[in-house]
Amino acid sequence: MNKTRLEAFSDGVIAIIITIMVLEMKVPHGSDWQALAPLWPVLLSYVLSFVYVGIYWNNHHHLLHAVHKISGAVLWPNLHLLFWLSLMPFATGWMGENHFAPLPVAVYGGVLVMAALAWVLLQRALLCLPGANTGLAQALGRDWKGKVSPVIYLASIGLAFVHVGLSLAGYALVAALWLVPDRRIEHHLRHGE
Amino acid sequence: MNKTRLEAFSDGVIAIIITIMVLEMKVPHGSDWQALAPLWPVLLSYVLSFVYVGIYWNNHHHLLHAVHKISGAVLWPNLHLLFWLSLMPFATGWMGENHFAPLPVAVYGGVLVMAALAWVLLQRALLCLPGANTGLAQALGRDWKGKVSPVIYLASIGLAFVHVGLSLAGYALVAALWLVPDRRIEHHLRHGE
Amino acid sequence: MNKTRLEAFSDGVIAIIITIMVLEMKVPHGSDWQALAPLWPVLLSYVLSFVYVGIYWNNHHHLLHAVHKISGAVLWPNLHLLFWLSLMPFATGWMGENHFAPLPVAVYGGVLVMAALAWVLLQRALLCLPGANTGLAQALGRDWKGKVSPVIYLASIGLAFVHVGLSLAGYALVAALWLVPDRRIEHHLRHGE
Amino acid sequence: MNKTRLEAFSDGVIAIIITIMVLEMKVPHGSDWQALAPLWPVLLSYVLSFVYVGIYWNNHHHLLHAVHKISGAVLWPNLHLLFWLSLMPFATGWMGENHFAPLPVAVYGGVLVMAALAWVLLQRALLCLPGANTGLAQALGRDWKGKVSPVIYLASIGLAFVHVGLSLAGYALVAALWLVPDRRIEHHLRHGE
């Protein structure tokens, strides 16, 4: 089975998710700075989620380089990841509109945890395929970021009820970790082609 | 006529349908559990519809493997299927927002029946094309799932006015039937390539 | 210049247009037939527009078979067509929500006229390209549908202020004319490949 | 790394941005000319933004012809550009709904400046890739439009608080500059293939 359509469909869904999040930034009725001011938390939430969805797209892009053909067994792990990502606009909007109240911040972290879990499952499903790039598989398997991220997420979810700023700092930290390009994957891609 | 653009357009429409359904989950105004509670039926409807649209995408993906070239005669059967799928966000939102009231649950089933019918018509149009994979055609022709599904749908539509839980169980049952990967199609794809 | 990205971008925009129109069908607050009843004109408008956008996608698909490479000179005629199509959701929603009041019905026809004009301009830009399929060009040039459609549109716009039913019948008639597959294009595609 | 998916994802995001802007044109409740009248500034803003996003898509399309392969180093500059473009629907809607009040007009210009800056950064990242088309790189490097545009944007932002008409004329002027096809790029594409 060819992987082109899986990529195209995932690209479509991720492109829509990353774009409709901006619809949660409702156009204010006034036209002065006071009308704009309450939008800052919404904009900040949007930036954070934009970076997260961007990271997932980049990683999805990299991950699919590890396989040449797919089978029906990866279609559902892929849709499962897209499902959790599709809850990002809701979680982002709720968090921004409530100016980072504890529960929405914790729920946002819950969506991040579930997306991270879905990512691990998709990674496993792909690397079990016959013909998967075992070098890339090993590189991804030793992935310390993938192990550290859920720990920080869970800590941040707890912290949301204690100190919201620290909780958000946790989410931002994980995003920063992933923003740094993964040299091993680039290395494998450059030498494996 | 090349099938690439038909696939790309269908991927686009299905990706948008599966993603805009989440927009029916309106961000609540409060920030506590009480604000979140009324969203459960909306989330549940969303999960059910996400799985259904995911199944249609997977099957569409499989079905188009049976042909190498398409003709203008399949463009409208394909758009007809996309039309009924495009009503899923409306039906899902109406059912969720009314906490599974009888009529919305029945209308949801009506959309599922029409999509199933449109699927059969698309399948026939594709398999009539010159050069269609007759092995896959026969496998799909003996498709007991395709025959059982509308029966369960119609029973569930009737049950919606008697016992909503049973009706929803019917919809979930059909989804579960289709979630199990179709070994015959995989078999044909693996051996036919 | 390769035509793949032009097709992909157009597919994306048309897929979004055809799908977001359904968002104008707002989920009603009640859960009985009375809540559903006022949606009929909205659904009817949606069906008509879905068919129109579907026709444009099919024809776009056919038209681009006439060329192998594109130049920068067709990018804007293509965007110009997409612009008028992008007004379809607005025109459709306005017409449906006002239960086919005269002005919205006339404005809907205005959008159809402008899209038809944009279509003619795109067709000309494409067929002027070096290497365009002159057989297809000639077939498309003798296109009586393209000449009759604007006449019916303009008559329907006038009729909107006299008898809305006749006006809508005019729009439906043009859609029906185009739904019938164009044998000449199919003929050229089959023999020209 | 193959550039197909980067193009597909960018096409998807840009297609969604250009299309959801029309959702800011809310369907009015009345059905006469008086209901339509307040929509003129919204429609005008939409046309301006449609042209701008169209220009970015055209230029993105051209720019990616300069490279054959991409590396992970261009994924974030590309997402950064898409981020600023994704704020266009918000800025457009705010400007249109407030009938070109000074602050929304200035904020609109701010988004244009940031998108222009992101464009320059993406251009640099792409042209640093090994194997980039140095002829195209040089042509793009001498790009006077890219140098003049931010100056006009900044002047227009200041003018927004003095004379809104002049400010909008500035934005329209930059759009007009870019609408004129860039002969050097076409030249390079035609001779470089």
Features:
mainly alpha, homotetramer, 10 helices
Could you explain the architecture of this structure?
Four copies of one chain form a homotetramer. Chain A has 193 residues and is mainly α. Chain A has helices spanning 4-20, 33-36, 40-63, 75-86, 88-97, 102-127, 134-141, 144-159, 164-179, 183-192. In chain A, α8 (144-159) runs antiparallel to α9. The longest helix of chain A is centred in the middle third of the chain and has 26 residues, at 102-127. The first copy, chain A, starts with a helix and ends with a helix. Chains in contact: A-B, A-D, B-C, C-D. Chains A and B meet through α1, α4, α5 and α6 of A and α1, α3 and α10 of B. Chains A, B, C, D: This is TMEM175 family protein. Chains A, B, C, D: It catalyses: K(+)(in) = K(+)(out). Chains A, B, C, D: Pfam families: TMEM175. Chains A, B, C, D: The chain crosses the membrane at residues 6-23, 35-55, 103-122, 151-180.
Give the count of structural domains of chain A: 1
Helix-strand category of chain A: mainly alpha
How does the major sheet of chain A shape up?
Answer: none
Biggest interchain interface, per-side counts = A-B, 34 and 35 residues
* Quaternary structure type: homotetramer
Low-confidence stretches of chain A: none
| Radius of gyration based on Cα positions of chain A | 18 Å
Order of helices and strands of chain A: HHHHHHHHHH
| Amount of helix of chain A | over 70%
Compute the number of helices of chain A.
Answer: 10
Q: How many β strands of chain A by DSSP?
A: 0
Coarse morphology of chain A: globular
How far apart, in Å, are the first and last alpha carbons of chain A? 21 Å
Mean pLDDT of chain A: 87
Strand content of chain A: under 5%
Subcellular location (chains A, B, C, D): Membrane
InterPro entries (chains A, B, C, D): TMEM175-like
Main location (chains A, B, C, D): membrane
Catalytic activity (chains A, B, C, D): K(+)(in) = K(+)(out)
